[in-house]
Amino acid sequence: MARLAQSEVQSDLRKIRSDSGDIHRRRAVSVLFIHRDADVADACLEELKKAKFSVRADFVLTIAQCAHQLRSQSYDVVVAEYPSPSCKGSQALQLLRQTVQEIPLLLLTTAIASESIAQLAVADVFDCVDRQHLAQLPMVVRRVLNEKRLRTELEEAGKALRHSQSLYQALVENPAYGICRCDVEGKFLDVNQALLTMLGYETKAELLAANHTSKIALDLGYGAPLPGCFRESVRVEPVEVEWRRKNGTTLKARLSGRGVYNENGDFASYEIIVVDVTEQRALEDQLRRQAFSDSLTGLANHRLLFDVLQAETCRTKRTEREFSLLLLDLDGLKEINDRFGHLVGNRALCRLAQILTDCCRSVDTAARGKVGTSSLWFCRKQAQTPLHWWHGEFAFAIFLRKMARNQRCPSA
Questions:
Q1: CATH class of segment(s) 175-281
Q2: How large is the C-alpha radius of gyration of the chain?
Q3: What is the mean pLDDT of the chain?
Q4: Is 181 exposed, middle or buried (0-12, 13-18, 19+ CB in 10 A)?
Q5: Inter-residue contact 41 to 57 (CB < 8 Å)
Q6: Looking at domain 20-148, does it have CATH number 3.10.560.10?
Q7: What percent of the chain has pLDDT over 70?
Q8: With contact defined as beta carbons under 8 Å apart, do 275 and 253 qualify?
Q9: In this predicted structure, which of 2-16, 149-163, 248-262, 276-290 has the lowest mean pLDDT?
Q10: Domain 293-406 sits in CATH 3.30.460.10
Q11: What is the Cα–Cα distance from 305 to 297, expressed in whole angstroms?
Protein backbone atom coordinates (compact mmCIF):
# COMPACT_ATOMS: atom_id res chain seq x y z
CA MET A 1 0.00 0.00 0.00
CA ALA A 2 2.83 2.39 0.86
CA ARG A 3 4.48 1.74 -2.53
CA LEU A 4 1.15 2.31 -4.29
CA ALA A 5 0.62 5.63 -2.44
CA GLN A 6 4.17 6.74 -3.24
CA SER A 7 3.66 5.84 -6.92
CA GLU A 8 0.44 7.88 -7.04
CA VAL A 9 2.17 10.87 -5.47
CA GLN A 10 5.03 10.72 -8.00
CA SER A 11 2.51 10.42 -10.85
CA ASP A 12 0.66 13.49 -9.58
CA LEU A 13 3.93 15.44 -9.34
CA ARG A 14 4.86 14.54 -12.93
CA LYS A 15 1.40 15.61 -14.09
CA ILE A 16 1.71 18.93 -12.25
CA ARG A 17 5.17 19.56 -13.79
CA SER A 18 3.84 18.66 -17.24
CA ASP A 19 0.84 20.98 -16.88
CA SER A 20 2.98 23.84 -15.58
CA GLY A 21 5.44 23.36 -18.43
CA ASP A 22 2.59 23.40 -20.95
CA ILE A 23 1.20 26.61 -19.46
CA HIS A 24 4.65 28.16 -19.56
CA ARG A 25 5.16 27.20 -23.21
CA ARG A 26 1.67 28.18 -24.35
CA ARG A 27 1.48 31.38 -26.34
CA ALA A 28 -1.73 33.39 -26.25
CA VAL A 29 -3.00 34.43 -29.66
CA SER A 30 -6.27 36.02 -30.81
CA VAL A 31 -7.49 35.00 -34.29
CA LEU A 32 -10.25 36.40 -36.48
CA PHE A 33 -11.53 33.90 -39.08
CA ILE A 34 -13.19 35.06 -42.32
CA HIS A 35 -14.54 31.68 -43.42
CA ARG A 36 -17.82 30.05 -44.39
CA ASP A 37 -16.90 26.51 -43.28
CA ALA A 38 -17.00 26.09 -39.49
CA ASP A 39 -15.31 22.69 -39.72
CA VAL A 40 -12.26 24.15 -41.40
CA ALA A 41 -12.04 26.86 -38.74
CA ASP A 42 -12.32 24.25 -35.99
CA ALA A 43 -9.56 22.22 -37.64
CA CYS A 44 -7.35 25.30 -37.63
CA LEU A 45 -8.02 25.84 -33.94
CA GLU A 46 -7.13 22.23 -33.18
CA GLU A 47 -3.82 22.53 -35.01
CA LEU A 48 -2.99 25.70 -33.08
CA LYS A 49 -3.84 24.09 -29.76
CA LYS A 50 -1.66 21.10 -30.62
CA ALA A 51 1.20 23.56 -31.13
CA LYS A 52 0.71 24.88 -27.56
CA PHE A 53 -1.16 28.05 -28.57
CA SER A 54 -3.79 29.46 -26.25
CA VAL A 55 -6.34 30.66 -28.81
CA ARG A 56 -9.14 33.21 -28.59
CA ALA A 57 -11.12 33.17 -31.86
CA ASP A 58 -13.99 35.00 -33.52
CA PHE A 59 -15.71 34.25 -36.81
CA VAL A 60 -17.15 36.47 -39.58
CA LEU A 61 -18.30 35.79 -43.15
CA THR A 62 -17.48 38.93 -45.17
CA ILE A 63 -14.91 41.69 -45.41
CA ALA A 64 -17.49 44.23 -44.21
CA GLN A 65 -18.13 42.16 -41.07
CA CYS A 66 -14.37 41.89 -40.61
CA ALA A 67 -13.98 45.69 -40.68
CA HIS A 68 -16.80 46.07 -38.15
CA GLN A 69 -15.24 43.45 -35.85
CA LEU A 70 -11.79 45.04 -36.03
CA ARG A 71 -13.23 48.36 -34.87
CA SER A 72 -14.38 46.76 -31.61
CA GLN A 73 -11.68 44.13 -31.02
CA SER A 74 -7.96 43.75 -31.56
CA TYR A 75 -6.48 40.59 -33.06
CA ASP A 76 -3.05 39.13 -33.58
CA VAL A 77 -3.83 37.27 -36.84
CA VAL A 78 -6.58 37.33 -39.46
CA VAL A 79 -7.20 34.02 -41.26
CA ALA A 80 -9.31 34.39 -44.42
CA GLU A 81 -10.77 31.91 -46.91
CA TYR A 82 -9.64 32.49 -50.49
CA PRO A 83 -11.25 32.41 -52.91
CA SER A 84 -14.68 33.07 -51.46
CA PRO A 85 -17.82 34.85 -52.70
CA SER A 86 -16.84 37.98 -50.73
CA CYS A 87 -13.10 37.82 -51.51
CA LYS A 88 -12.03 36.95 -55.03
CA GLY A 89 -9.54 38.61 -57.33
CA SER A 90 -6.66 41.01 -56.80
CA GLN A 91 -8.91 43.98 -55.96
CA ALA A 92 -10.63 42.00 -53.21
CA LEU A 93 -7.25 40.99 -51.83
CA GLN A 94 -6.09 44.60 -51.79
CA LEU A 95 -9.32 45.63 -50.04
CA LEU A 96 -8.82 42.90 -47.47
CA ARG A 97 -5.22 44.03 -46.94
CA GLN A 98 -6.34 47.61 -46.40
CA THR A 99 -9.03 46.44 -43.97
CA VAL A 100 -6.72 44.48 -41.68
CA GLN A 101 -3.95 47.14 -42.03
CA GLU A 102 -0.91 46.08 -39.95
CA ILE A 103 -2.42 42.81 -38.67
CA PRO A 104 -0.77 39.69 -40.20
CA LEU A 105 -3.05 38.16 -42.84
CA LEU A 106 -3.11 34.42 -43.65
CA LEU A 107 -5.03 32.97 -46.59
CA LEU A 108 -6.49 29.49 -46.46
CA THR A 109 -6.38 28.46 -50.12
CA THR A 110 -6.72 25.48 -52.39
CA ALA A 111 -4.00 24.23 -54.70
CA ILE A 112 -5.61 25.95 -57.67
CA ALA A 113 -5.97 29.29 -55.88
CA SER A 114 -2.37 29.23 -54.71
CA GLU A 115 -1.15 29.60 -58.27
CA SER A 116 -3.25 32.73 -58.78
CA ILE A 117 -1.69 34.55 -55.82
CA ALA A 118 1.84 33.23 -56.18
CA GLN A 119 3.18 36.61 -57.19
CA LEU A 120 1.68 38.28 -54.11
CA ALA A 121 3.11 35.61 -51.87
CA VAL A 122 6.58 36.04 -53.41
CA ALA A 123 6.34 39.78 -52.80
CA ASP A 124 5.67 38.99 -49.10
CA VAL A 125 2.28 40.69 -49.26
CA PHE A 126 0.28 37.66 -48.08
CA ASP A 127 1.04 34.35 -46.36
CA CYS A 128 -0.83 31.32 -47.67
CA VAL A 129 -1.62 27.92 -46.14
CA ASP A 130 -3.11 25.11 -48.20
CA ARG A 131 -6.29 23.65 -46.71
CA GLN A 132 -4.85 20.18 -47.33
CA HIS A 133 -1.82 21.00 -45.14
CA LEU A 134 -3.30 22.71 -42.06
CA ALA A 135 -0.51 21.22 -39.93
CA GLN A 136 1.68 24.01 -41.31
CA LEU A 137 -0.61 26.68 -39.88
CA PRO A 138 1.02 26.90 -36.40
CA MET A 139 4.46 27.32 -37.95
CA VAL A 140 3.22 30.09 -40.25
CA VAL A 141 1.38 31.83 -37.39
CA ARG A 142 4.49 31.73 -35.22
CA ARG A 143 6.58 33.13 -38.05
CA VAL A 144 4.24 36.02 -38.87
CA LEU A 145 3.89 36.91 -35.19
CA ASN A 146 7.68 36.99 -34.81
CA GLU A 147 7.97 39.13 -37.94
CA LYS A 148 5.34 41.51 -36.58
CA ARG A 149 7.25 41.76 -33.29
CA LEU A 150 10.49 42.44 -35.13
CA ARG A 151 8.82 45.10 -37.28
CA THR A 152 7.44 46.77 -34.15
CA GLU A 153 10.87 46.74 -32.49
CA LEU A 154 12.44 48.08 -35.67
CA GLU A 155 9.90 50.90 -35.86
CA GLU A 156 10.46 51.80 -32.20
CA ALA A 157 14.22 51.74 -32.72
CA GLY A 158 13.81 53.94 -35.79
CA LYS A 159 11.67 56.41 -33.84
CA ALA A 160 14.23 56.48 -31.02
CA LEU A 161 17.02 57.01 -33.54
CA ARG A 162 15.18 59.84 -35.28
CA HIS A 163 14.42 61.44 -31.92
CA SER A 164 18.06 61.17 -30.90
CA GLN A 165 19.17 62.61 -34.23
CA SER A 166 16.74 65.52 -33.89
CA LEU A 167 18.04 66.27 -30.40
CA TYR A 168 21.62 66.12 -31.61
CA GLN A 169 20.80 68.29 -34.62
CA ALA A 170 19.09 70.82 -32.36
CA LEU A 171 22.18 70.88 -30.15
CA VAL A 172 24.55 71.24 -33.08
CA GLU A 173 22.52 74.05 -34.63
CA ASN A 174 22.05 75.86 -31.30
CA PRO A 175 23.53 79.35 -31.79
CA ALA A 176 24.56 79.57 -28.13
CA TYR A 177 26.94 76.59 -28.11
CA GLY A 178 29.88 75.89 -30.33
CA ILE A 179 30.59 72.22 -31.05
CA CYS A 180 33.75 70.78 -32.52
CA ARG A 181 35.44 67.43 -33.02
CA CYS A 182 39.18 67.27 -32.62
CA ASP A 183 41.86 64.62 -32.61
CA VAL A 184 44.20 63.75 -29.74
CA GLU A 185 46.58 66.53 -30.82
CA GLY A 186 43.87 69.19 -30.55
CA LYS A 187 43.37 69.75 -34.28
CA PHE A 188 39.84 70.52 -35.40
CA LEU A 189 38.14 67.84 -37.50
CA ASP A 190 34.70 69.45 -37.75
CA VAL A 191 32.92 72.49 -36.30
CA ASN A 192 29.38 73.85 -36.27
CA GLN A 193 28.18 77.26 -37.42
CA ALA A 194 28.01 78.66 -33.87
CA LEU A 195 31.75 78.14 -33.37
CA LEU A 196 32.46 79.80 -36.71
CA THR A 197 30.47 82.83 -35.55
CA MET A 198 32.28 82.91 -32.21
CA LEU A 199 35.70 82.99 -33.86
CA GLY A 200 34.68 85.30 -36.71
CA TYR A 201 35.33 82.90 -39.60
CA GLU A 202 33.04 82.54 -42.59
CA THR A 203 33.68 78.93 -43.64
CA LYS A 204 34.75 75.69 -41.99
CA ALA A 205 37.67 75.35 -44.36
CA GLU A 206 39.04 78.74 -43.28
CA LEU A 207 38.78 77.85 -39.59
CA LEU A 208 40.29 74.40 -40.08
CA ALA A 209 43.18 75.98 -42.01
CA ALA A 210 43.75 78.48 -39.21
CA ASN A 211 43.69 75.68 -36.66
CA HIS A 212 46.15 73.53 -38.61
CA THR A 213 48.55 76.46 -38.89
CA SER A 214 48.51 76.84 -35.08
CA LYS A 215 46.71 80.17 -35.11
CA ILE A 216 44.18 78.59 -32.77
CA ALA A 217 45.69 76.27 -30.18
CA LEU A 218 43.50 73.58 -28.64
CA ASP A 219 45.59 71.64 -26.16
CA LEU A 220 43.34 69.37 -24.15
CA GLY A 221 46.24 67.88 -22.27
CA TYR A 222 44.76 64.36 -22.38
CA GLY A 223 46.12 62.61 -25.46
CA ALA A 224 44.68 59.30 -26.56
CA PRO A 225 42.99 57.29 -23.77
CA LEU A 226 44.67 54.14 -22.59
CA PRO A 227 43.45 50.88 -24.18
CA GLY A 228 40.84 49.09 -22.11
CA CYS A 229 39.60 52.14 -20.22
CA PHE A 230 35.87 52.65 -19.84
CA ARG A 231 34.24 54.91 -22.40
CA GLU A 232 32.35 56.76 -19.66
CA SER A 233 35.67 57.77 -18.08
CA VAL A 234 37.00 59.44 -21.26
CA ARG A 235 35.69 62.93 -20.58
CA VAL A 236 37.08 66.42 -20.92
CA GLU A 237 36.61 68.19 -17.61
CA PRO A 238 35.40 71.81 -17.88
CA VAL A 239 38.34 74.11 -18.60
CA GLU A 240 38.62 77.72 -19.76
CA VAL A 241 40.90 78.75 -22.60
CA GLU A 242 41.64 81.93 -24.51
CA TRP A 243 41.46 81.87 -28.29
CA ARG A 244 42.33 84.59 -30.78
CA ARG A 245 39.50 85.57 -33.09
CA LYS A 246 40.06 86.32 -36.75
CA ASN A 247 39.95 90.07 -36.06
CA GLY A 248 42.60 89.75 -33.34
CA THR A 249 40.34 90.09 -30.28
CA THR A 250 40.37 87.54 -27.46
CA LEU A 251 37.66 84.94 -26.99
CA LYS A 252 37.35 83.38 -23.56
CA ALA A 253 35.70 79.96 -23.89
CA ARG A 254 34.75 77.18 -21.51
CA LEU A 255 35.30 73.70 -22.93
CA SER A 256 33.78 70.38 -21.89
CA GLY A 257 33.21 67.14 -23.74
CA ARG A 258 33.83 63.42 -24.07
CA GLY A 259 35.63 60.84 -26.15
CA VAL A 260 34.01 59.37 -29.27
CA TYR A 261 34.58 55.78 -30.44
CA ASN A 262 34.05 54.21 -33.85
CA GLU A 263 32.07 51.08 -34.66
CA ASN A 264 35.10 48.89 -33.90
CA GLY A 265 35.39 50.28 -30.38
CA ASP A 266 38.57 52.25 -31.14
CA PHE A 267 39.02 55.82 -29.96
CA ALA A 268 38.22 58.23 -32.80
CA SER A 269 38.14 61.80 -31.51
CA TYR A 270 37.03 64.20 -28.82
CA GLU A 271 33.65 65.93 -29.07
CA ILE A 272 33.87 69.34 -27.40
CA ILE A 273 31.16 71.83 -26.43
CA VAL A 274 32.36 75.45 -26.47
CA VAL A 275 30.61 78.17 -24.46
CA ASP A 276 31.55 81.82 -25.00
CA VAL A 277 32.18 83.35 -21.54
CA THR A 278 33.92 86.53 -22.72
CA GLU A 279 31.10 88.88 -21.76
CA GLN A 280 30.50 87.00 -18.52
CA ARG A 281 34.14 87.34 -17.44
CA ALA A 282 34.21 91.01 -18.47
CA LEU A 283 31.08 91.64 -16.39
CA GLU A 284 32.61 89.82 -13.43
CA ASP A 285 35.76 91.95 -13.69
CA GLN A 286 33.66 95.09 -13.89
CA LEU A 287 31.63 94.11 -10.83
CA ARG A 288 34.84 93.24 -8.99
CA ARG A 289 36.30 96.67 -9.80
CA GLN A 290 33.08 98.39 -8.77
CA ALA A 291 33.07 96.53 -5.47
CA PHE A 292 36.58 97.76 -4.54
CA SER A 293 36.86 101.13 -6.28
CA ASP A 294 35.30 104.57 -5.92
CA SER A 295 32.89 105.37 -8.73
CA LEU A 296 33.87 109.08 -8.87
CA THR A 297 37.65 109.13 -8.56
CA GLY A 298 38.53 105.59 -9.62
CA LEU A 299 40.65 105.15 -6.46
CA ALA A 300 40.28 102.28 -4.07
CA ASN A 301 37.20 102.55 -1.85
CA HIS A 302 37.05 102.19 1.90
CA ARG A 303 36.48 98.40 1.69
CA LEU A 304 39.71 97.81 -0.21
CA LEU A 305 41.52 100.31 2.02
CA PHE A 306 40.55 98.37 5.15
CA ASP A 307 41.74 95.12 3.55
CA VAL A 308 45.09 96.76 2.65
CA LEU A 309 45.51 98.19 6.13
CA GLN A 310 44.82 94.81 7.71
CA ALA A 311 47.32 93.12 5.41
CA GLU A 312 49.97 95.78 6.07
CA THR A 313 49.40 95.54 9.82
CA CYS A 314 49.91 91.77 9.71
CA ARG A 315 53.01 92.23 7.56
CA THR A 316 54.43 94.75 10.02
CA LYS A 317 53.92 92.37 12.93
CA ARG A 318 55.59 89.60 10.98
CA THR A 319 58.55 91.48 9.43
CA GLU A 320 58.76 94.59 11.66
CA ARG A 321 58.80 96.75 8.53
CA GLU A 322 56.54 99.73 9.05
CA PHE A 323 54.23 101.53 6.65
CA SER A 324 52.81 105.03 6.50
CA LEU A 325 49.22 106.22 6.17
CA LEU A 326 48.62 109.73 4.88
CA LEU A 327 45.24 111.46 5.20
CA LEU A 328 44.55 114.32 2.79
CA ASP A 329 41.56 116.59 2.92
CA LEU A 330 40.67 119.07 0.18
CA ASP A 331 40.37 122.52 1.74
CA GLY A 332 37.66 124.77 0.49
CA LEU A 333 35.67 122.04 -1.23
CA LYS A 334 32.43 123.33 0.27
CA GLU A 335 33.12 126.83 -1.08
CA ILE A 336 33.82 125.38 -4.54
CA ASN A 337 30.54 123.46 -4.44
CA ASP A 338 28.59 126.50 -3.27
CA ARG A 339 30.16 128.88 -5.82
CA PHE A 340 30.63 126.72 -8.89
CA GLY A 341 28.37 123.75 -8.24
CA HIS A 342 28.94 120.12 -7.28
CA LEU A 343 30.08 119.20 -10.80
CA VAL A 344 33.11 121.49 -10.49
CA GLY A 345 33.70 120.26 -6.92
CA ASN A 346 33.79 116.69 -8.22
CA ARG A 347 36.31 117.74 -10.87
CA ALA A 348 38.53 119.27 -8.16
CA LEU A 349 38.36 116.05 -6.15
CA CYS A 350 39.19 114.02 -9.23
CA ARG A 351 42.19 116.34 -9.93
CA LEU A 352 43.62 115.57 -6.48
CA ALA A 353 42.96 111.86 -6.99
CA GLN A 354 44.91 112.03 -10.26
CA ILE A 355 47.87 113.61 -8.41
CA LEU A 356 47.84 110.72 -5.93
CA THR A 357 47.66 108.19 -8.74
CA ASP A 358 50.64 109.78 -10.54
CA CYS A 359 52.71 109.70 -7.35
CA CYS A 360 51.65 106.19 -6.39
CA ARG A 361 53.98 103.24 -6.76
CA SER A 362 52.72 99.81 -7.70
CA VAL A 363 52.97 98.69 -4.05
CA ASP A 364 51.15 101.75 -2.69
CA THR A 365 47.40 102.25 -2.33
CA ALA A 366 45.52 105.50 -2.91
CA ALA A 367 41.95 105.45 -1.65
CA ARG A 368 38.98 107.67 -0.99
CA GLY A 369 36.97 107.60 2.20
CA LYS A 370 33.26 106.96 2.24
CA VAL A 371 31.17 108.49 -0.54
CA GLY A 372 30.29 112.11 0.15
CA THR A 373 33.55 112.96 1.94
CA SER A 374 36.52 114.94 0.67
CA SER A 375 39.13 112.87 2.51
CA LEU A 376 41.69 110.86 0.56
CA TRP A 377 43.98 108.24 2.01
CA PHE A 378 47.43 107.17 0.89
CA CYS A 379 49.03 103.97 2.20
CA ARG A 380 52.77 103.71 1.48
CA LYS A 381 55.07 100.84 2.22
CA GLN A 382 58.39 101.66 3.88
CA ALA A 383 61.10 102.39 1.33
CA GLN A 384 63.80 104.07 3.48
CA THR A 385 65.82 102.83 6.40
CA PRO A 386 64.17 103.27 9.82
CA LEU A 387 66.41 106.27 10.59
CA HIS A 388 65.29 108.28 7.55
CA TRP A 389 61.78 106.82 7.16
CA TRP A 390 59.82 109.49 9.04
CA HIS A 391 61.62 112.36 7.29
CA GLY A 392 60.97 110.78 3.90
CA GLU A 393 57.26 110.39 4.52
CA PHE A 394 56.97 113.96 5.82
CA ALA A 395 58.75 115.27 2.73
CA PHE A 396 56.40 113.24 0.54
CA ALA A 397 53.37 114.80 2.26
CA ILE A 398 54.81 118.32 1.70
CA PHE A 399 55.38 117.39 -1.95
CA LEU A 400 51.76 116.32 -2.38
CA ARG A 401 50.57 119.56 -0.80
CA LYS A 402 52.63 121.67 -3.18
CA MET A 403 51.42 119.67 -6.17
CA ALA A 404 47.83 120.29 -5.14
CA ARG A 405 48.37 124.01 -4.59
CA ASN A 406 50.00 124.42 -8.01
CA GLN A 407 46.85 123.12 -9.69
CA ARG A 408 44.60 125.89 -10.97
CA CYS A 409 41.14 125.97 -9.55
CA PRO A 410 38.70 124.84 -12.23
CA SER A 411 36.37 127.57 -13.40
CA ALA A 412 32.67 127.21 -13.98
A1: alpha beta
A2: 45
A3: 77
A4: middle
A5: yes
A6: no
A7: 74
A8: yes
A9: 2-16
A10: no
A11: 14
